[in-house]
Specification:
mainly beta; five-stranded antiparallel sheet; binds calcium ion
């Protein structure tokens, strides 16, 4: 099962850098009832590089409430495995035992099909931490039952990944996850939870792309949304040499927390753009200190209902130049995409300026 571990690590690295917006210290949405898009929070996601499986919320026979999550194969003899997962900051759990439980049922085709919960602790310097993916006790029962993994979090752990993978053809379902100490008592987080951004339906058209409007609109989907509760980043409007007009957006570090990055995001309704090619462009420049190894990145994401990540692309080129330069990402919008998110992130330390963003759809009309 070693290859699976390293495969998952590879998938994670592809996602984390741009999805680590504000690394949560607790898993979110454990009962899968939350349909709100939670900007700035990791939540559940499906590694976008998995092509032969899909992950979605379903109201079909949940263990509790109105829905659970379903992982299903998209073709016969699928390659690899399906996966739904979360990634959290390990800091509050260092040196502690954690118990990860979830209700699971499997309608995967026997004899090869099954579901397996998994828990992996990532340590610094790529050292191996606790890992259990239930390969010795795969889940094949079509009836809801609770399964458990208990492991110890190393003193130098940096991240904890939890998830449920699926092998073979068919469907598996997961609901009512818990993440506690071995007695079932939740660990108290030393960090304040990040503010969940409650959103109305996102608008079809992006607004304030030149940042000339005097305010950032942080409470609904009109305009830019800034992750709340970050300890090490600020986003503000800046009159310091904008690319156009009187001002631009500035993402700046105010300290360093390796589990965060500073972001500014705009989210729009994906429905008008389904099946069509969209392009996000933006002018950006950076003010970086070489010793601090910072950089910026444009990004484009597609989400399904319930915050499931379908696609997550960083710009091909890091924003490192101190001169204004245009950066571009192009993507055909999947037919099940609910929300398109685009924006800019600052990683590590420094400042990134953003101005004159454009969002276009060449196949539209
Ligand atoms: Ca549920
Ligand atoms: Ca401007």
């Amino acid at each position: 099962m070693k290859f699976i571990s390293s495969f998952v690590v590879t998938l994670l690295c592809g996602i984390l850098v741009s999805d680590i917006l504000a690394q949560s210290t607790e898993p979110q949405n454990l009962d899968f009832e939350d349909e709100l898009v939670s900007l700035g929070m990791a939540g559940w996601f499906a590694p976008p590089s998995i092509k032969d499986y899909q992950v979605k919320l379903t109201s079909h026979n949940p263990h509790s409430g109105k829905q659970c999550v379903e992982v299903s194969s998209l073709r016969s003899e699928p390659n690899g495995f399906g996966n739904v997962m979360q990634y959290i900051d390990a800091t509050p759990y260092r040196g502690k035992k954690i118990t990860y439980k979830a209700y699971v049922r499997s309608e995967a085709k026997l004899p090869l099909g099954n579901a397996q919960l998994w828990l992996r602790v990532d340590r610094t310097n790529k050292k191996k931490g606790f890992f259990d993916n239930m390969h010795d006790r795969p889940i094949i029962s079509p009836v809801w039952k609770e399964y458990t993994i208990t492991g110890i979090v190393d003193d130098d752990a940096r991240g904890i990944a939890i998830g449920c993978m699926m092998h073979g053809e068919g469907k598996i379902y997961v609901d009512d996850v818990s993440f506690t100490d071995p007695e079932g008592i939740p660990y108290e987080s030393p960090y304040k939870p990040l503010k969940r951004v409650k959103t109305a339906a996102p608008s079809a058209n992006p607004v304030n792309l030149d940042f000339e409007s005097s305010e950032f609109d942080t409470d609904d989907r009109k305009g830019w949304v800034i992750s709340k509760g970050l300890t090490s980043y600020k986003v503000k409007l800046s009159a310091n040499e904008p690319h156009g007009g009187k001002q631009c957006a500035k993402i700046m570090s105010t300290g360093f927390n390796r589990m965060e990055c500073g972001t500014i995001i705009q989210a729009i309704d994906a429905k008008p753009y389904r099946g069509k090619r969209v392009t996000v462009k933006a002018f950006a420049r950076a003010d970086l200190d070489e010793d601090l190894e910072g950089w910026g990145s444009l990004f484009l994401r597609l989400r399904q209902p319930g915050d499931m990540m379908l696609y997550n692309q960083k710009g091909d080129e890091r924003i490192e130049s101190n001169q204004w330069k245009e950066y571009t990402i192009t993507k055909v919008v999947d037919n099940d995409a609910e929300t398109i998110e685009f924006g800019c992130g600052l990683f590590r330390q420094g400042s990134v300026y953003l101005d004159d963003v454009s969002f276009s759809c060449e196949d539209c009309k």
